[in-house]
Amino acid sequence: MKAMKAGMIGLVLGSLAAQAELEVMPAQVFRFVAEEGKFYQVEERKGEQWEAMGEAVRGEGEAVERVVTGGDATGRIRVRELHKQWVDQA
In whole angstroms, what is the distance from residue 30 CA to residue 18 CA? Predict the structure, then answer.
């Protein structure tokens, strides 16, 4: 029993030493309702251009959430409904 406890303590100490450094960053969560059958693209303003953030979202009638880091996202994130555009439906 003593040997087992010592082994477990060594295992715990070893796993604590292997932990990666943790960095905490401020973030904002935004949410929109994606209507069933419609497609949406979340975009971020980069200078004068809007760039896609990830893949297009296929609406299923439920809320979709995205987390944005890097300070206040107000005015630099938008959600655009896609019309007459090719979307990979896989």
Answer: 34
